[in-house]
Amino acid sequence: MRVEVERITGLLQAIYDGEAWHGPSTREILTDVTAEMAVYRPSPQVHNIAELVVHLTNWRVFALEKLTDSVTYDIILNSEADWPVINELTEEGWQEKLETLQDTQDELLETLSRIHTPKLSDPVPGRRYNYYTLLHGLLHHEAYHSGQMAHLKKMLV
User: Fold this and answer.
1) What integer is the mean pLDDT of 21-35?
2) Distance of alpha carbon 143 from alpha carbon 157, whole angstroms
3) Chain-centroid distance, C-alpha 99
4) Coil/strand/helix, residue 141
5) What is the pTM of this model?
6) What is the full DSSP assignment across 48-99?
7) Considering only Cβ atoms within 10 Å of each terminal Cβ, which end of the chain, N or C, has fewer?
């Protein structure tokens, strides 16, 4: 009763720190990124790597909250909770953001280990989609933003 959940878990592991089908994993992209690189912004309209990392983390927290059936937790699109503004960052602060991203990865994998496939068809509290869509959306979201981070990193290396 866990086959589909295990497939999603495998994809989540691969995209974050395994052999992702599309190229480097998120963790591989973030290797050797310094705080200075993380806040580099090529133009005012572009999110920097640090903002992208926190954005990914925030939506992982959203998924975790919903997977534990939170009805009240929400992120309003284009709010500070969705897209924080980060213009300055110490190395220590940057490492904390990377650790928080890793922590949400670990927590997602642990949470998914307790979920059975039938739950994937259940509606997400407060949303018009089910858990299957939420989790696949999380995967697509990470691939998209990891590509942005890879592009920004290439501009700096």
Assistant:
1) 96
2) 21
3) 12
4) helix
5) 0.96
6) -HHHHHHHHHHHHHHHHHHHTT-SS----TTSTTTS-------HHHHHHHHH
7) C
